[in-house]
Amino acid sequence: MHVTQAILTRRSHKVFDGTPLPDTDLQHLLELAIWAPNHKFTEPWRFTVVPKRAFGQLWQAVQDAADTDKARSKLGKLQEILAGAGAAIAVRQVRSPDNAERDLEDYAACAIASQHIQLGAWERGWASYWTTSPGFVGGKLAAFWQTAADERLVGVIFLGKAALEMPAVRRHAAASVAVWL
Ligand SMILES: Cc1cc2nc3c(=O)[nH]c(=O)nc-3n(C[C@H](O)[C@H](O)[C@H](O)COP(=O)(O)O)c2cc1C
Question: How many CB atoms lie within 10 A of CB 37?
Answer without folding.
Answer: 10
